[in-house]
Amino acid sequence: MKYQTDDPYEICEYLDIQVMDRPMGKSPRSCKGFFLVSSRCKLIVINSDLPDSIQRIIIAHELGHAVLHSDSAINTFHEFAMFEDTSRMEYEANVFAAEFMLSDDTVLEALEMQMDFYQTAKCLYVPPELLDFKLRILQCQGVRIIAPYIAHGDFLKRDLEQPLS
Q: Which of 71, 143, 130 lies closest to 104 in space, CA to CA?
């Protein structure tokens, strides 16, 4: 709201966060992106081999790290699970991405269409896990909906182009 945009690239520009896209592979185990701070310079690197729709989700997630965790000592290469805080930080970045990518009104309108959970996620162009995070947020706000509780902090490590099995 402050910057009058929902474009994560524009928000990064406003926040003086450099965004680079680099090819990092297409296999499910390839790095999708990361956030780091070096000499007080903030940088988000996104895997350019991913489809644009997935890149947008990854940048929203990494923007979450930039906003929520840039003062943390473990912000560089947060994907590595060497630190106890990593799962909490990943969870927080996922919640940030869910709030950033999915407005309350849009989600509630989609749910009124009486589609099942997975159809709703597909209609909203997000992985089901991200919709699950958003539904949990709405529940906490008092909205009477059922969240499937399928999402974990590390869901972005899976191949997001494949349906959940």
A: 143
Distance from C-alpha of 84 to C-alpha of 150, rounded to nearest angstrom: 22
Distance CA 24, CA 92 (A): 24
Q: Are strands 33-38 and 17-22 parallel, antiparallel or unpaired?
A: unpaired
Is-contact 132 148, C-beta < 8 A?
yes
What is d(CA 61, CA 93) in angstroms, rounded to the nearest whole number?
5
SS3 94: helix
Question: From its phi and psi, is residue 148 left (phi > 0), alpha (psi between -120 and 50) or beta?
Answer: alpha
**Phi–psi pair at 54, nearest 5 degrees:** -75, -40
In a 13 Å sphere around the CA of 78, the CA atoms on its Cβ side amount to 35
- Residues 111-164 pLDDT 10s: 999 888 999 999 999 999 999 999 999 999 999 998 888 888 788 888 888 887
